[in-house]
Amino acid sequence: MHTTRRLFQDTIKKIERWETFKTALFKENPILLLLLGIWPVVALTKTAKEALIFASITLLLLFFSNFFVSLFFRGVPYQRRTCVFLFLIAVEVTLLDYFLRLHYPTFRESLGIFLLLLVMNEVILSRTQTFAVRNNLILSCLDALGAGFGYVWGMMLVGCIREILGNGTIFGQIVFGKEFHKSPMLACNLSGFAFILLGFLIGFFRMINKREKRV
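Above: the chain's sequence. Below: its structure in token form.
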């Protein structure tokens, strides 16, 4: 009887963990459904590589923010959470900035001011305030991974479409032949096109999400 009960509890925990990850990845996708962290999607998705790099950095910071908040700051009063969490994120971004400047200066320069603006990234701040501060360490880490990978594939989707249409390449490799590569749709490289594309993608995925809820 005890073994059966323990097996049942373990199964419930696994289901809860999987649902936490899946919800953050798909049902609450930061970009396409919650509209969080939109500015890098517009500014840093000219190529798929650029989008992948910045989104991966965001994932890394999100993971460590959720980790430390869930481990050390769950008892912070509600009125002080924003200040404390912003300070934590600022420390993480500053340490990452120093590390990149020391070991990868060229790469750091390519990120420009956008790396420092991650201190105010809505995805990181929202997941720490709405989830990590209220849940245990394992669930908080899974939520961070789900939201982080959701942010990655959201930015990657926009970056891939813009690079294919704007340059005729994907990760620098020609995909539609040399003719298209020589005369691509240059308007796709503009930030305005990123806004329009993002609007269509948000509408499309929200429509799918509504249909799934009805079913």
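The first helix runs from residue 2 to 27.
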